[in-house]
Amino acid sequence: MVLRRIQVGCEFRYLAAVDTPVIFQVQPGASRWNAIETERWTSTPAMPTREYLDLYGNPCVRAVLPAGRSSFGYEAVVACPDAAEDADQGARECRPDDLPDHTLLYILPSRYCLPDVLGDEAWSRFGGLAPGYGRVQAICQHVHDHLEFQYGSTTARSTAADVNLAGRGVCRDFTHLAISLCRALNIPARYVFGYLPDLDVEPDPAPMDFAAWMEVWLGERWWTFDPRNNVRRKGRIVIGRGRDASDVAMATTFGGPHLEAMVVRSEADPQS
Q1: Residues 6+ apart with CB under 8 A from 214
Q2: Domains in the chain: how many in total?
Q3: Residue 36: which domain range?
Q4: Does residue 108 lie in a domain region?
Q5: Residues 184-228: tens digit of each pLDDT
Q6: pTM over the 0.90 mark
């Protein structure tokens, strides 16, 4: 298997009035496809950290931001296959009573994904299509065409139903809407976020950011779909998976520090 080495990382710069506990979720999770070759955490001033795995098995780090200005960062080199994610037009949907137990959580409503609210629209638009991989791709095509990508168009409270009505959002909103439509059809779908470099595609002129996409259970496995980009991509490096974005926040602060800047890096390693 041909591998590509990807440099990933991020830095958060804060101004805090008091010492503030924080949880960061920015480290790639365990994967049979991607291997972390080198990694390091950085902080100014130096901060002790504690690592743990959350409910979904995602790696997290705990720290305490000191009062005043501080920065916290992560960087790594990750080896991943030089190929886009798998696809199979023949992958079949499972009847609800045939779904594995561990997938049932991902057909239920969650904070941002509302299959109960969007059920009528899901069935009217996609209920007549042949079940399987092609129907999920049709959902992604619809969301990709329906929503306009626009920074600042949604808030931390915007649900899939809000986004569907407004017609605008960012990658997490595209993903929440597509997940909701899948779940309304009893297709398990879970939220994924991570690093996504511009490998062998036209570079995005916007500053690099974390990316969100979804995984859908078809046949006997999870398949990757990306309603925002709507194309198969190389170099996806998963940080976390959950029901929606509320399960996998890249930073959770227990207080009100001001985030002065956030920088994300994801690009091919020039030495590979």
Answers
A1: 175, 178, 179, 182, 189, 190, 191, 192, 224, 225, 226, 227
A2: 2
A3: 3-82+250-268
A4: yes
A5: 999 999 999 999 999 999 888 888 999 999 999 999 999 999 999
A6: yes
